Amino acid sequence: MDIGKTKRTSPSTTARGHATRLRIVQAAAELVAARGVDATTLEDVMQASRTSKSQIYHYFADKEALMCAVVKAQSDRVLELQSGCLSGVRSLEGLRQWRNEVVSLSRARHGVGGCPIGSLASALADRSEDARALLVASFRRWESQLARSLEQMQARGALRPSARPGDLATAVVSALQGGLLLAQTTRSTRPLELALDMALAYVAAHSTEDLPTGVAS
Amino acid sequence: MDIGKTKRTSPSTTARGHATRLRIVQAAAELVAARGVDATTLEDVMQASRTSKSQIYHYFADKEALMCAVVKAQSDRVLELQSGCLSGVRSLEGLRQWRNEVVSLSRARHGVGGCPIGSLASALADRSEDARALLVASFRRWESQLARSLEQMQARGALRPSARPGDLATAVVSALQGGLLLAQTTRSTRPLELALDMALAYVAAHSTEDLPTGVAS
DNA sequence: CCAAAACTGGACTGTCAAGTCCAATCGTGC
DNA sequence: GCACGATTGGACTTGACAGTCCAGTTTTGG
Lengths: 217, 217
Prior knowledge:
Two copies of one chain form a homodimer. By secondary structure, the first copy, chain A, is an all-alpha fold. Chain A has nine helices and no strands.
């Protein structure tokens, strides 16, 4: 059975080695988020993490394996960031706050970089089966987090019984990804705002609260 | 003033030259759609288009200029494809047909490749200002096409006067892009279907027709 | 027909980046 | 302190790919 590029090159690791590995992955994650997968060379990573080539190849079989580690790291980072405002969502109002947070983050960077996970997905999904599997898991975790919040709303009667939290979550994440891609391209938050307002309205349409149709703009 | 990478290397072109240029761009567009920008080398393009290096550099200043031409070509191709079922949209039912078309196309490729324009956007938006400008224009044309149909619906009273066709179009395209990205990653049409159903429901929410809330699945 | 310009073939260069290798050092258990 | 594996430095190899160059061919315009 294929273990996948996730496997360590070395089986055991000391504390120092673990720290080195961490430095490598974090530096790589930052560079990749800023420049993209292909524009990031191992030399860049070496320099940014103050390591040597043998260190990188001691911990990763090849660049693909390193990129898989980057996917994991970015997923953890984004998920943790999101869990702050996303799993805290208890109402439509909470969702709107999350929307505003996301828009603010995008505005701060003028859309540049887009979504760290989305960019990785576009760059790796068709090129590395291992990375793709990790990205699928990442999106699933993301959706689950949102779905749990929606389920709780449903349990409290805020969402109709007919609503499907899992499907809603997938739709919301899609809108987010699409909005971020357009925001990255146009360097404007407007598409992101419109996409998320649509998503909010969609959730609202499944709620028992009454919201005016024109949530947007 | 900057003319941008769009400019020809040569000012005038004969019929034969024009044909050669076309062969190059089309071959490049296909390869890029299949493998991505970075995984497509000029050697690949030469082979696929049966041309030589000097021919490529006769018509394009560098690879970036060629990629800009690819963006234009893909935009035209996709827009023309979409205009068939998109500008023909006269009602919510027409939109639903469009949705089904898009899902079918994605299913046929198991999501691989995602959206040709979306992939180009993710790969080039932060790397080439010229390409980004073309991509912005491409998305704008796409949205305009959809917006025009929505405006006509509005003129016929099918959409409420308060609805904003332009904003709706942007939201729909965002949902499409996000759905295609997730479909590409998960190799499933499900996220795309959910995203587009959300978009349809959003448009329906601004219509005067009455649609059941649970359009989705 | 004849120049000039458009076009083409294909070898060549320079660079850069992934991956290899080995010797040296560090750290831990015994 | 010793052995052994983990760790590290950094030079080296290999291959690939963007871009250059020039000589040759075709086409155009007059």
